Amino acid sequence: MAFRILDPTTPRHQSRTRLAERRVPLALGSLSESAPFFQPSPELVAAVNVALAVGAPLLLTGEPGTGKTQVAHYLAWYFDLGECFFRLDVRSNTTAHDLLYEFDSVAYFHAAHDPNRKQEAIERGAFVREGPLWQALEAERPSLVLLDEIDKAPRDFPNDLLAVLAESRFYVRERDRWVERRPGAPPPFVVITSNSERRLPEPFLRRCIFHHIAFTEELVRRAVEARRADFEKLDAATVDAAVGRFMDLRARNVRKKPATAELLVWLTVLGAQGDVTAEQLQNCALAELPALSALIKDRDDLAAL
């Protein structure tokens, strides 16, 4: 990883070459690329095995940055699911129907009122787009469905999922057919994440296998050790000092606490700089840490430091 790409002290005509030769570590910005480096705890492994054994959804909670979404990508990599990994990013207006399929009513309206259209009837089923669960149910291989940040959805969303997840089948009115898993095939493995911003309904919780990922120093150090090759130029003492200052920063009263992803970016930058020592990190104030912009993302937090 090159670091000093912008350097006003060097001739401008060299700048385009430096920009073109820039190489960004793939694992920093890609959950799929970083999946092989994920280190599940024994407790998480146990929860995954229970959910798989009984065919129940796995509900993962924890503050942002604990690796909840990464768990699904790790499982997709570990079980070699390839294209049979499907995802729904939950938003404030998401409904259970978004998991099943989408009917493009706008395209249907335009087609129905197209003056150049021939007089034959329009098939409503042609305007149906298959959702993540539909694709997972009809996949020819074992599949995984990720429902990311379910606590962002409307209150009724989790309960609306109960029947369709339990039965692994649903009816598509526009095509007048049932979508269901192949006879003898196991149900798709469903992984659900929540930042615990809002308590989920009791009936939904009863049907899930639950695991909470706590943000601990042990979790952080496992992640750092797994990605050690990304900052191999840093010696062990410097890495240890960096993790210590990172935990000091999280202990401060800041609004946006840096998480594991920010720590890995910060360590990668420190390794690319090549001139950072353990003594420098241990002896400077938090506000004077090198490359602090990789850790602090809020102006008020920076002022507080």
Jot down its keywords.
305 residues; five-stranded parallel β-sheet; two-stranded antiparallel ribbon; 9 strands; 41% helix; globular
Describe it for me?
With 305 residues, this protein is α/β, with parallel strands linked by helices. The protein folds into two domains: 42-212, P-loop containing nucleotide triphosphate hydrolases (Rossmann fold), CATH 3.40.50; 216-304. It is built from 16 helices and nine strands. The strands form three sheets. The protein has a five-stranded parallel β-sheet with strand order 2-5-8-1-9. Strands 3-4 form a two-stranded antiparallel ribbon. It is globular, with a radius of gyration of 24 Å. The chain starts with 14 loop residues before the first helix and ends with a helix. The mean pLDDT is 91.
Quick summary of this structure?
This protein is α/β, with parallel strands linked by helices. It contains 16 helices and nine strands.
Number of strands: 9
The CATH topology assignment of the largest domain is Rossmann fold
Number of domains: 2
In DSSP terms, counting alpha (H) and pi (I) runs of 4 or more, how many helices? 16
* Helicity level: 40-55%
Structural class: alpha/beta
Main CATH class of the largest domain: Alpha Beta
How is the biggest beta sheet arranged? 5 strands, parallel
List the secondary-structure elements in sequence, H or E.
Answer: HHHHEHEHEHEHEHHEEEHEHHHHH
CATH architecture annotation of the largest domain: 3-Layer(aba) Sandwich
Write out the CATH superfamily name of the largest domain: P-loop containing nucleotide triphosphate hydrolases
